[in-house]
Write a structure and sequence with these properties.
The protein is mostly helical and 196 residues long. The chain is 47% helix and 0% strand. Helix 3 crosses helix 4.
Length: 196
């Protein structure tokens, strides 16, 4: 090691040692060599939604679940962001996500052609012909979620209803009881992504 480099390293080490002594605990006239106790700082964790608020009636029996890909997770996050934008709480996000799981499996559906005798599209299978908006609007996850939530806000007492009843009042589905099967997965997704 060359002399100049060694002197630099030793000089830095000496400064570090001196700074450590100067910055150490002050001895206020006591002769104790006992270390000063350190009070641990509690780890602050981001607030996670309370599952009791997400599932106020508990999850119904016979729950379904599906594996989600990146696009579906992005749609979950878009629904949560739109729910927050609408000034609504985590329970509204659970209702929205469960509804989208039933209607589209969280896929932003285009026109289904022969597989669908209506013009239902987007995450919530909303129909332009029923006044939900244009095709471009209802295939935008934020717009379609805000449209769904606008309908949900108009349902008196939706916060106290079973999820399937609240969703059905907005959606008017031919299969009104099918929303309930997605309640647990929707609550789990909100718990996981509400603060992300």
């Amino acid at each position: 090691m060359n002399t100049m480099l060694r002197k630099s390293i030793l000089g830095i080490a000496g400064l570090t040692a001196a700074a450590g002594l100067a910055a150490g605990p002050l001895n206020h006239g006591t002769t104790s060599n006992e270390p000063t106790p350190i009070t641990p700082i509690a780890a602050v964790q981001a607030d996670k939604p309370d599952m009791g608020k997400l599932l106020p009636h508990g999850a119904p029996a016979n729950q379904s679940t599906i594996e989600l890909n990146d696009e579906q997770i992005a749609n979950v996050k878009a629904i949560i962001a739109a729910t927050k934008k609408a000034g609504m709480d985590e329970r509204a996000a659970v209702v929205s996500i469960a509804t989208a799981l039933q209607e589209s499996k969280l896929e932003n559906l285009g026109h289904l052609g022969d597989r669908n005798d209506h013009d239902s599209q987007g995450l919530f299978q909303q129909r332009p012909s029923s006044g939900w908006g244009t095709v471009e609007q209802i295939t935008d996850p934020e717009y379609s979620t805000l449209a769904f939530l606008k309908g949900l806000k108009q349902v008196d007492g939706w916060q106290d209803m079973a999820l399937t009843e609240a969703a059905q009042t907005v959606q008017v589905s031919a299969y009104p009881d099918h929303y309930a099967q997605w309640e647990q997965q929707a609550a789990d997704l909100v718990a996981q992504h509400w603060t992300s």
